[in-house]
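Can anyone check this?
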Amino acid sequence: MRQKILFLLAVGLMMLFSAFTGSNNSLSGVNETIDLIKRSGGTRSATATEVFAYRNNDGWITVEIKNYSGNVWVSVEGVGGGLQQVAQINEQGFVMLDTSTLPNGNYYLRITLENGVYEGYFEK
């Protein structure tokens, strides 16, 4: 009897977790990773800078930067226009751009740090 209760409890928790995960994704939008290529670089450091970019279904671009302190310039350019954002990062941080006002099309993402330039493309 005890094993049946534990089994049913485990199955119930798995169903609850999968239902919660599914509803969370549908409400907040599924993030899409934007592939970035480092085009130029500065001097080598003890810890390598990591740069990631994501786009969600609401039109927000999130740039995540780790192991870096300094200025960050982020720009999005395409047929429908462009956006720019400048931020100061200390060790790690995020820069966000709202692209919801840009029309559908192909866009170029450029992230300029003091120690390198990263580029990527995405379709809206």
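Reply from J.R.: I decoded it. The longest helix spans residues 2-28.
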